[in-house]
Amino acid sequence: MSRQELLEYLLKEIEKCGFKIVDVGFFPVPAAVNVDNKIMIYNSKEASPFEIAHELIHILNKDNHRGDYFDSTNPQEVRANHEAVLLLWEIFEANGGSYEYFNVFVNTTNTPFELAESIIKNEYLEMHEAITEIFEDEIKVSINKQKMHEYIVDYISYFDVIETVSIYEFLDRYHLSHNFYEMAKKEFQQLLGTT
Which of 8, 72, 67, 64 is closest to 33 using CA atoms? Predict the structure, then answer.
């Protein structure tokens, strides 16, 4: 999504909220919204996607008591900055963007680099850690199943004829936890063709 397409998308989202949008070329700030009067004034020559997204967040949160433009001590401004970055990142990812193209994100949205990096990096790392943790658990299970199969094949190879199998004896012989009883039982049944 190009910068212009992103701007158009954000402006449409603001219109969907019932706001009148007025483009004023000599407006002293890139964009401002009055939530009570449902109007947004912006300077189309100056406003970036980040600044429009910032104003959209004010609209969605019904922020009507704000301080100066981008007042970093005002909780509503801080929240609007944070949520604007997350909104823009969500749009970026939905259009094929990823963390590897972070600079493209910053250049397209005009999001302050340090702000975007701190927010997105934290979000990305938390998600990456969660995914890694999920896959590590799956890998551990598959490794355990594979090892279990190898141990059982090794165990069976010591017998000429198998009449009965003591699963607990097998687990003890290979120093495996008794928690693997069901897994071992299923693997023995599959290998020996019994149910």
Answer: 64
Q: Which residue's entry shows tokens 């900055």? A: 81
Which among 72, 75, 46, 42 has a CA at the least distance from the CA of 61? 75
As to burial, measured by CB atoms within 10 angstroms (0-12 exposed, 13-18 middle, 19+ buried), residue 40 is buried
Burial of 159 (0-12, 13-18, 19+ CB in 10 A): exposed
Is residue 61 within 8 Å of residue 86, measured between CB atoms?
no
- H/E element holding 155? helix 113-156
Residue whose pair of structure tokens reads 């198998």 in the numeric block:
162
Q: For residue 178, give the DSSP letter.
A: G
Token pair 């097998």: residue: 170
Cα distance between residue 52 and residue 83, in whole Å:
12
Tell me the pLDDT tens digit for each residue of 162-191. Answer: 888 888 888 888 877 777 888 888 888 888
**H or E element that contains 22:** strand 20-23
pTM score, whole prediction: 0.63
Cα 76 to Cα 74: distance, rounded to the nearest angstrom: 5
Alpha-carbon distance 46 to 39, whole Å? Answer: 18
Closest listed residue to residue 181, CA positions, set 172, 191, 190, 194: 172
